[in-house]
Amino acid sequence: MSVETALATRTPLSVRAAENRRATRLLIGNRTLARVVAMAALIIMTVMWLLPFAWALVTSFKSETDAAASATWTPPNGWTTQAYENVISKGALATWMLNSTIVAIFVTLITVLISAMAAYAFSRTLFRGRKLLFAITVASIMIPGQILIVPLFQQMLSFRMVDTFAGIILPQVVAPIMVFILKKFFDAIPQELLDAARVDGAGPWRTFWTVVVPLSQSILIAVSIFVFISAWNNFLWPFIVTTDASLMTLPVGLTTVQDAYGIQYSQNMASALLAALPLLIVFMLFQRQIVRGVATTGLGGQ
């Protein structure tokens, strides 16, 4: 292997390692004590998160008799996949997962687009009532979503959007907290870059797409992942606005897979794990972007 090939092979890894070290310094600093305390806290939180997950995984492979009768890690009658077979056979799992994917993707795309444009307007444009509108946006963060369910449902009835994908998606695309996060990030982008774009003849729209968006990729990816996870896990609104089983999302559909013999612990755990599996995959694929987006928030797109 030539020297050039070796360097080309190792350069991405070295750059990635440098980015990891930089993100770590930004999050926990350079002091040894701070790093030790942070690592200890991370280990404790990891164990606290993994224990319930491990228990759910073990329970899902138990028979209903063992799950109800014994609280042990090893089932007396051995392992079984009967809970997963029941969940898959009694419900339209593939349809529900496809519906959840469609809803989560469209909610993410529309929410990020609207939030980014609103945040850019609040951050870099001057218009009458800007401060009042931003104050209302921030105040709306404190409004519980459950309060809006009745008026939203009445709107969906008026627009004939009940039992439609539009009725599931559109009420979820307004996210004031994402507008606030993106606005704070856009505030830190150097004004000189925007002025240079204007000197080159770029208007506000072109400046937004060619300067602001490329500089904000890390925070946009992080926001997209958070919105996707929220839309995927949303149970209440899809449950209220849909009655057609072919339009149900995964969290709603899994609740219909019930048995007539009381609580089915293994089946419930299997359902929860199947619903969480896509989110775990998404997080594992994009965890670097999440950390980078959080670590660089407010640093001017660095």
Plain-language structure description:
The protein has 302 residues and is an all-alpha fold. The chain has a domain at 92-295: MetI-like (MetI-like fold, Orthogonal Bundle), CATH 1.10.3720. It has helices at residues 3-28, 32-60, 64-69, 82-90, 93-124, 130-139, 149-158, 165-169, 176-187, 191-199, 204-215, 217-233, 236-241, 250-255, 265-295. The longest helix has 32 residues, at 93-124. The radius of gyration is 24 Å and the shape is globular. The relative contact order is 0.13. Mean pLDDT is 81; it is low at 1-11 and 298-302.
- CATH topology of one domain: the name is MetI-like fold
Helix percentage: over 70%
Radius of gyration, in angstroms, nearest whole number: 24 Å
CATH architecture of one domain: Orthogonal Bundle
CATH homologous superfamily annotation of one domain: MetI-like
Shape: globular
Cα-to-Cα separation, first versus last residue: 35 Å
* Individual helix count: 15
Rounded mean pLDDT score: 81
Assign the structural class, choosing from mainly alpha, mainly beta, alpha/beta, alpha+beta, or little secondary structure: mainly alpha
Written as H for each helix and E for each strand, in order along the chain, the element string is HHHHHHHHHHHHHHH
Q: Say how many strands there are.
A: 0
Strand content: under 5%
Q: What does the main sheet amount to?
A: none
Uncertain runs: 1-11, 298-302
CATH class of one domain: Mainly Alpha
